[in-house]
Amino acid sequence: MAHTRKWRALLIVLGVLLWSPAFAASEYGAPLTLKDVTKVSEIADQPGKYLGKRVLVEGMVVEVCAKRGCWMDIASDRKYEKIQIKVTDGEIVFPLSARGRNALVEGVVEEIAMSFDEAVEYARHKAEEKGELFDPASVTGPQTIYRIRGIGAIIRD
Amino acid sequence: MAFNWRKWNAAVHRDLGYLCFGLTIIYAVSGIAVNHIQGWNPSYTFERERTNIGPFKVKDDVSDQDVIQILARLGEKRPHRSFFQKGPAEVDIFFREGNATAVNLRTGDVVQEMAKPRPLLYPMNFLHLNHPKKTWTWMADVYAVSLAVLAITGLFILKGKKGIRGRGAWLTAAGILIPLLFLFLYI
After folding, report:
1. A29: distance to nearest CA of chain B, Å?
2. How many percent of chain A have pLDDT more than 90?
3. Do A80 and B82 touch (CB under 8 A)?
4. Sign of the four-CA dihedral B143, B148, B154, B156
5. Looking at the partner chain, which of A79, A99, A157 has a beta carbon nearest the beta carbon of B61?
6. Which CATH number do you get for residue A32?
7. What is the span of the domain harbouring residue A124?
8. How far is B151 from chain A (nearest CA, A)?
9. Which of A93, A1, A98, A79 has its CA nearest to residue A40?
10. What count of other Cβ atoms lies within 10 Å of the Cβ of residue A115?
11. CB < 8 Å to A60, chain B
């Protein structure tokens, strides 16, 4: 009888450990080192000024890579605008539960210049990830996007 | 009485093996799941539901009250966490657990995306990918060191032909050569 109780207690402890909301982590990658937040709108307005520089940005997480958690978009301080945070696959994995939460992200601003074909492929990939129909006509030419190569992040409510 | 190191070696290997069993299974299962991340999301399943609530007029920017009304039209009773207006007529509404609802205000088209954590795999990946950080990082380090101790003590469990001086040597060498071969091929 005592033996059964012990096993039951052990299972309960294991269950609690595995499911506990206390494990709801909010820190990803390396610890943040910067103190001053750069506005996303500033980076969007003057990407050349920030290219290759380490920045700290803050905003609501509005999209997360559904498959690998290898990128997330955070909303800008300016309406309708957002910026992508890209991390190396597997090194940092952003959870889907981050959507709608606030993120503080440190990383390096980078430029991705895409040819027309690459831009079409990129848009097709994004549409597939979201389960949306892809319209090739939505891409009209080569594209250059600016994103942040994420180093560390804190995501909180 | 002489110190019997082989007996201690076996005892350490045995007890550490018992201790590491749970986490080894968790890391093994999660490892396979995460290895094939190209083809699926190992932590969540997704369901997408499309519906239409009719055009929804807003004065200027979408407000919290507008979102509450949209959710009422949808018959959605869960409180929303936040929302993002991604365009003049498009708004994404977020719920806990990462669920999101995309609304086109002009057409009334709605896509409700429900992400559900996979039973067992979600907490396994959570630990394996070290999402908890903090104390779990130390636990994972202790586990990694324990695996190294298990590997080393395992070499000296058996004596004789099947031990490290016989067949064990060949198998150990093969185990070292396999990753080296792949490094040579891919780097």
Report:
1. 9
2. 57
3. no
4. negative
5. A79
6. 2.40.50.140
7. 25-156
8. 26
9. A79
10. 11
11. 82, 84
Q: Report how far apart, in Å, the C-alpha atoms of A10 and of each of B100, B125, B171 are.
A: 37, 21, 37
B interface test, pick of A96, A138, A157 with most B CB neighbours within 10 Å: A96
Of A23, A89, A97, nearest to B98 by CB-CB distance is A97
Burial of B22-56, coded b for 16+ CB within 10 Å and e otherwise, reads ebeebbebbeebbeebeeebbbbeeeeeeeebeeb
Supply the pLDDT for residue B69. 95
The helix or strand, by DSSP H or E, that contains position B84, with its residue range, turns out to be strand B82-87
With an 8 Å Cβ cutoff, are B123 and A18 in contact? yes
CB of B94 within 8 Å of a chain A CB? The answer is yes
Residues of A in contact with B96 (CB under 8 A): 97
Assigned domain for A15 exists: no
Q: Is residue A141 part of a domain?
A: yes
Q: What is the pLDDT of residue A1?
A: 53
Domain spans of chain B?
Answer: 5-41+119-156, 44-117
Tens digits of residue pLDDT in B124-153: 999 998 888 779 999 999 999 999 999 999
Residue A38 within a domain: yes
The answer to whether A135 touches A128, Cβ cutoff 8 Å, is: no
Name the average pLDDT for chain B. Answer: 93
The model carries a pTM of 0.73
